[in-house]
């Protein structure tokens, strides 16, 4: 018999079918055994009657066993109909039950655990509805983001993960032994490559893996993250990439809220609020607001501290009805060396951050496009322009004024569903102590 997906069973009432999937729940009621079976399309209740030839096997089968079930699709009697659940009006009367694979589980799926236990058992816990919801949402964000950028004239390219040098000097890079006696690095950002791609395409984007040896354990940092990066040519200033980013965020939120409203409901969170225009504050304005509204001193006036980010978001939500806020005019020296300085407000830059529900999810800027200025800036920062000759060639051969930004996919997903830790929004997170399993400290 051909397999029928559980999601299609309601069209097969009165027919015999073959279903294949996992056992989510087994309820042994003595004479009869009830199951919830699930496959990629959903779940259905099964019942094994005392007279069924499957009754012996039904007694052996446990949660997460992989099974093939032949049975009859029956309408449930009115009193047993549950309109709240999928297939709540039908039931699969099991006639044959074949075990395709046995299972031994650490705890019942969906049990609330702490994050470490969840991560220790990812091959199992990723099957939970919660995890499936998170990664369904993440996939949808990725699709929507890509479509929006394509619609805005951007071409996607693949950025390399292995690079010859630590591009930005700032973020700690992982070193890789590269053939015999050479050293390479894992990319901390696709920055140089997306700027180079402005040459062929004017507007380019990439979904890139970035690797950062973040030494502190925080709820916002991973050692391996995914960035949605774009870069665009012929801009007047940073407001143009900010507008593209805003459009992309709006398109993404619109698509996922209409396609996956039920996930927001299951997580008990609202669809993000975005007004006509996302509010924009300079760093100074934002910190002045936070100091006044929350009656406290700002420790670092050169950058946003995590607490500043949380509080400005709280203020903006209350006063502007927005879950997003842009922060601009960071000091040039606090940004990457290629950041364009605002001539009328030096030493402030044309860099910006986008905060979402209390957390930075994106950084961007207009970039320096004049190679002489770029080389001078490298020297000021103690970087050797010789080492950047590959990157610099893009500027020597003619580069328009340009800028772009980078959104962390895991942070975006985490804030979308208000997950407290970015690791929950990462299918296989890597951090200082863990690559799948906990790392041993032995050499
Ligand atoms: P932070 O100040 O929070 O450490 P950053 O300013 O160093 O972040 P950027 O270099 O601006 O990060 O990277 C662009 C975006 O990529 C960030 O806004 C964030 O969403 C994401 N990102 C960067 N580093 C990480 C990381 N280690 N883990 C998860 N996401 C990251
Ligand atoms: Mg940043």
Notes on the protein architecture:
This protein is an alpha+beta fold and 443 residues long. It has 2 domains: 6-101, Nucleic acid-binding proteins (OB fold (Dihydrolipoamide Acetyltransferase, E2P)); 119-438, Bira Bifunctional Protein, Domain 2 (BirA Bifunctional Protein, domain 2, 2-Layer Sandwich). Helix content is 29%, strand content 27%. The protein has helices at 55-60, 115-120, 122-125, 129-151, 191-196, 198-201, 239-259, 261-267, 283-293, 306-320, 371-380, 389-396, 409-416; strands at residues 16-29, 32-39, 42-48, 66-75, 90-101, 155-156, 162-163, 175-178, 182-186, 203-211, 224-233, 280-282, 324-328, 351-356, 359-367, 402-408, 430-431, 434-435, 437-438. The strands form 4 sheets. Strands 6-10-11-16-15-14-13-12 form an 8-stranded mixed β-sheet. A 5-stranded mixed beta barrel has the order 1-2-3-5-4. The N and C termini lie far apart (55 Å). Bound molecules: adenosine-5'-triphosphate and magnesium ion. Magnesium ion binds at residues 353, 360, 363.
The gist of it:
By secondary structure, the chain is α+β, with helices and mostly antiparallel strands.
Secondary structure blueprint with pairings:
Elements: E1 16-29, E2 32-39, E3 42-48, H1 55-60, E4 66-75, E5 90-101, H2 115-120, H3 122-125, H4 129-151, E6 155-156, E7 162-163, E8 175-178, E9 182-186, H5 191-196, H6 198-201, E10 203-211, E11 224-233, H7 239-259, H8 261-267, E12 280-282, H9 283-293, H10 306-320, E13 324-328, E14 351-356, E15 359-367, H11 371-380, H12 389-396, E16 402-408, H13 409-416, E17 430-431, E18 434-435, E19 437-438
Parallel strand pairs: 3-5, 6-10, 12-13
Antiparallel strand pairs: 1-2, 1-4, 2-3, 4-5, 7-9, 8-9, 10-11, 11-16, 13-14, 14-15, 15-16, 17-18, 18-19
The chain binds adenosine-5'-triphosphate and magnesium ion.
């Amino acid at each position: 018999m051909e397999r029928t997906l559980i999601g299609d069973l309601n069209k097969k009432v009165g027919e015999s079918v073959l279903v294949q999937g996992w056992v989510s729940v087994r309820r042994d009621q003595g004479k009869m055994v009830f199951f919830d079976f699930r496959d990629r399309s959903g779940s259905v209740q099964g019942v094994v009657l005392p007279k069924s030839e499957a009754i012996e096997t039904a007694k052996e089968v446990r949660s997460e066993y992989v099974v093939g079930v032949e049975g009859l699709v029956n309408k449930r009697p009115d009193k047993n109909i549950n309109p709240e659940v999928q297939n709540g009006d039908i039931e699969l009367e099991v006639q044959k039950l074949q075990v395709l694979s046995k299972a031994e589980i650490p705890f019942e799926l969906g049990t609330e655990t702490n994050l470490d236990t969840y991560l220790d058992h990812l091959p199992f816990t990723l099957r939970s509805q919660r995890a499936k919801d998170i990664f369904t949402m993440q996939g949808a964000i990725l699709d929507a983001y890509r479509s929006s950028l394509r619609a805005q004239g951007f071409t996607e390219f693949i950025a390399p993960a292995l690079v010859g040098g630590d591009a930005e000097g700032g973020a700690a890079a992982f070193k890789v032994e590269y053939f015999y006696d050479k050293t390479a690095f894992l990319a901390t950002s696709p920055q140089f490559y997306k700027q180079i791609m402005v040459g062929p395409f004017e507007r380019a984007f990439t979904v890139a893996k970035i690797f950062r040896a973040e030494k502190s354990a925080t709820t916002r940092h991973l050692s391996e993250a995914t960035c949605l990066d774009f870069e665009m040519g012929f801009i007047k200033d940073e407001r143009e990439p900010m507008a593209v980013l805003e459009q992309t965020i709006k398109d993404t939120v619109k698509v996922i809220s209409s396609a996956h409203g039920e996930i927001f409901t299951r997580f008990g969170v609202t669809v993000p609020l975005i007004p006509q225009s996302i509010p924009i504050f300079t760093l100074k304005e934002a910190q002045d607001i936070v100091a006044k509204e929350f009656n406290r001193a700002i420790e670092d006036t050169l950058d946003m501290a995590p607490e500043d980010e949380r509080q400005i978001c709280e203020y903006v939500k209350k006063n502007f009805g927005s879950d997003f806020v842009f922060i601009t005019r960071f000091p040039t020296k606090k940004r990457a060396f290629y950041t364009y300085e605002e001539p009328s407000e030096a030493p402030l830059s044309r860099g910006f951050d986008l905060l979402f529900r209390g957390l930075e999810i994106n950084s961007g800027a207009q970039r320096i496009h004049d190679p002489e200025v770029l080389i001078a800036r490298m020297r000021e920062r103690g970087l050797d322009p010789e080492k950047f000759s590959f990157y610099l060639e893009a500027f020597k051969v003619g580069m328009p004024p340009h800028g772009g930004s980078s959104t962390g996919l895991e942070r975006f997903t985490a804030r979308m569903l208000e997950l407290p830790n970015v690791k929950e929004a990462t299918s296989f997170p890597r951090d200082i102590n863990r690559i799948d399993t906990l790392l041993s400290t032995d050499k």
